Amino acid sequence: MTLNEIHRDPNGQTALYQTEDRYFRLLEQRFGQRFLNYRQRWQETSERAEPGDFPLSLDLAINSGCQLRCLMCPLPGRPERRQLRLMEPRTFERLMAEAEERRLPALTLGLASEPLLNPQAAAWAGRAVRAGIMDIRLGSNGLALSADAAKALVDSGLTRLEISLDAATPGTYRAVRGGDLSALERAIEQFLEIRQAAGLETPLLRLSFLRLEINGNERGLFLERWKDLADMISLQEPIWFPGSALPRPEQPGQPMAGVCAQSWQRLGVEHDGRVWPCCSWYGEGLLPFNVNDLSVAGIWRSPEMEALRRSLSGPVDGFPAACRQCEF
Questions:
Q1: What is the pLDDT of residues 59-114, one digit of tens each?
Q2: Geometric angle at alpha carbon 236, from 147 and 107, rounded to 5°
Q3: pLDDT per residue over 11-39, tens digit each?
Q4: Other C-beta atoms within 10 Å of 293: how many?
Q5: How are beta strands 14-18 and 57-60 bridged, if at all?
Q6: Cβ atoms < 10 Å from Cβ of 79
Q7: For the chain, percent of residues with pLDDT exceeding 90
Q8: What does pTM read for this prediction?
Q9: Of residues 275, 235, 284, 327, the one with CA closest to residue 75
Q10: Given a cut of 70, is residue 256 above it in pLDDT?
């Protein structure tokens, strides 16, 4: 089967492929014109059009911590962030109440952490469904995807399960992520069997491959292994973060495109309520807000958020320092 590109970030960092038109077809059937309007707004905000009164997506760290030590991740270099701390249920409920009131289109469970370490992950996905959110994603390394966890996610109404592999052979997976690829592959296949037994198309399965020097020759093997099983495949280019095990580039490269639209589209929320204007580690600390003190709507159109958008609307050399690092 042939992989067809369905999305590419304006800066070229991520391209998304699928073999069959499941994602758009399924959600258009389920939500009709509301879903089409959401995708139209996403396209418009990709070009940094009017951001509206509320984000199109919230990206939530429903816990801190992770059980892996991936080469490209800054968490291994930050032991204080590797400790497991759960988002308070009242914080999550506050976010869901506002999301329901504002008709939030999309939600990601998982920001700079492994969300399946939170025992409430599936239940909270179900709460997001009840809040009327259409596109509910959970981004995971997949190693905690037991049969019980897979069934709970299938039953929850989760729209997309997104698992990062970044390798096609056990040795490379161990070198990149430090885990057991065979166990992960079994968990993915078991998830697909559970979903099929339930007679459901969701959660759609997205698998991702981040190109690194150590795994670059396995991209073809990865595509061949998963192209007929995954609903979507994501191919990504790396971004260097302080604290990761990747060598820091000796010279800055060219900017990806001088275009970052995330502050027009999404807001990240850490487990303790602090906010990021994007889903990148470089967004940490750029905003002085906490959702336990101020509403998402108030943050979204705050003077600080508007000032950030103005800075990102011009040349790259006018970006905040953290954004310039990310862009290069």
A1: 999 999 999 999 999 988 887 788 899 999 999 999 999 999 999 999 999 999 99
A2: 55
A3: 667 777 776 688 889 999 999 999 999 99
A4: 9
A5: unpaired
A6: 8
A7: 77
A8: 0.92
A9: 284
A10: no
Residues 6+ away with beta carbon under 8 Å from 113: 61, 62, 63, 64, 65, 66, 75, 271
Can you give the pLDDT at residue 13? 72
User: Which token pair is 275?
Assistant: 């906010």
Closest by CA to 166, choosing from 119, 214, 205, 118, is 214
pLDDT of residue 276: 97
Q: What is the 3-state secondary structure (H, E, C) of 33-50?
A: HHHHHHHHHHHHHHCCCC
What is the distance between the alpha carbons of residues 73 and 65, in angstroms, rounded to a whole number?
12
